[in-house]
Write a structure and sequence with these properties.
With 186 residues, the protein is α/β, with parallel strands linked by helices. It contains seven helices and five strands; from the N terminus they run E-H-E-H-H-E-H-E-H-H-E-H.
């Protein structure tokens, strides 16, 4: 990997972007950034109000939240520091056209393509999410959402990592290997 490596993780909710991202950043010895934390910081700058990202979404709505995602992505793209980082995005971030233009310019986009059965189990563990169109049929909901999102994720990604039950460290190792780099653990 080059000196200024920027890796952007995309994928569905609960695909492991944050967990794998933290491990990957640690293995590479670079900074980890979570889009949700960037949105919280940006919201605080705008409204002088500290709220967790879920509460920002609830109080201010999806349009505000998506606009904040795009703005936070622009800020990250323009920031010179850190020169290298791993960024975990929200599952819906790649769907916005503005973000689709920004993501490839920001760094290497990696799609974490978790097995649908694994995803479904992880997603509904905390209850069926509000964005599932069929509240009484989570599997059908996930199938439809994946059918719409997968082509977008795949078109943006320079690298797709399909996995089922691998541990976060194993997924991070796959990313490092496929990007042709070495971790600091080597």
């Amino acid at each position: 990997m080059n000196d200024a490596e920027r890796i952007i993780l995309i994928g569905m909710k609960s695909s492991g972007k944050t967990t794998v991202g933290r491990v990957l950043a640690e293995k590479l010895g670079i900074a980890f950034t979570d889009m949700d934390a960037l949105i919280e910081q940006l919201h605080f700058q705008k409204k002088n109000e500290e709220l967790p990202f879920r509460e920002i979404f609830k109080r201010y709505g999806g349009d505000y939240f998506r606009a904040m995602e795009t703005e936070a992505l622009k800020v990250q793209a323009e920031a010179g520091e850190p020169a290298s980082f791993v960024l975990a995005t929200g599952g819906g971030l790649p769907l916005a056209e503005a973000n689709q233009a920004l993501l490839p310019k920001l760094g290497t986009v990696v799609y974490l393509d978790a097995d649908p059965d694994v995803l479904l189990d992880r997603i509904v563990r905390g209850g069926v999410p509000a964005f599932f169109p069929y509240q009484d049929d989570p599997k059908r909901s996930l199938d439809e959402i994946l059918a719409a999102r997968r082509p977008v994720y795949q078109s943006l990604a320079q690298l797709t990592i399909a996995y089922r039950h691998e541990l976060p460290g194993e997924v991070a190792d796959q990313i490092i290997q496929q990007l042709g780099g070495n971790s600091h653990e080597d």
